Amino acid sequence: ILLLIRNPKDLAASFYHFSNGLAAFPSYETWDDFFTDFMAKKIAWGCYFEYLSEWNKYADQENIMTITYEEVKENPALVVKNIATFFGIPLTEEELQLVVERSSFQSMKKNSEKTHGSFGDVLFRKGDWKNLFSEDQNKKMDKAFEERIAGTKLGKKLKYDLYCKA
């Protein structure tokens, strides 16, 4: 099992735009409305902190590999190599580079019309949590993270201080 996790602020900002981009989901007139629902666990698929807490129970099992979105951004070649090793898939250097190139955000966005149709515009967009969060919202999210997930294995893996502090 490959478990990909993301810092909660990026996830919230991304899900806000995702929700507003698809007719099948409730849309939100403002970021503030979405943030209130997000923190109150009133969004599709429930509470992200509960999701992380549940997965944390299994994080040490040998058949589970956890990576963060931030790790993928920092060193995609190393992450792809580690995933291939975890699944027992031998990759030549050429194959590794091809996977890295084709799975880059830029490449997926460029090809999104072919691969995902109009849905691609909703999926492939840059994050912007720092432009959405108010100071108060930032503090609320930081507090929720500290109280609910910071001390866990997955919480520590997220390197919250590094990626989420404004």
Write a structural description.
With 166 residues, the chain is mainly α. The protein has a single domain (2-165), classed as Rossmann fold (3-Layer(aba) Sandwich). The protein has helices at residues 8-21, 31-39, 48-56, 69-74, 76-87, 93-102, 105-110, 112-116, 120-123, 129-132, 135-148, 153-157, 160-164; strands at 2-5, 65-68. The protein has a two-stranded parallel sheet. Helix 5 (76-87) packs across helix 6 (93-102). The two termini are 32 Å apart. InterPro entries: P-loop_NTPase (IPR027417), Sulfotransferase_dom (IPR000863).
Q: What is the CATH superfamily label?
A: P-loop containing nucleotide triphosphate hydrolases
CATH class division: Alpha Beta
Broad structural category: mainly alpha
Element order: H for helix, E for strand: EHHHEHHHHHHHHHH
Strand order of the largest sheet: 1-2
Domain count, please report it: 1
CATH overall fold name: Rossmann fold
Number of helices: 13
* DSSP E strands, number: 2
Shape: globular
Percent helix: 55-70%
CATH architecture: 3-Layer(aba) Sandwich
Give the biggest beta sheet. 2 strands, parallel
Measured between the Cα atoms of the first and last residue, the distance is: 32 Å
- Compute the average pLDDT: 87
Low-confidence stretches: none
Rg from C-alpha positions? 17 Å
Our estimate of the beta-strand percent is under 5%
Enzyme class: transferase
Domain Sulfotransferase: 1-152
Keywords: Transferase
Protein name: Sulfotransferase
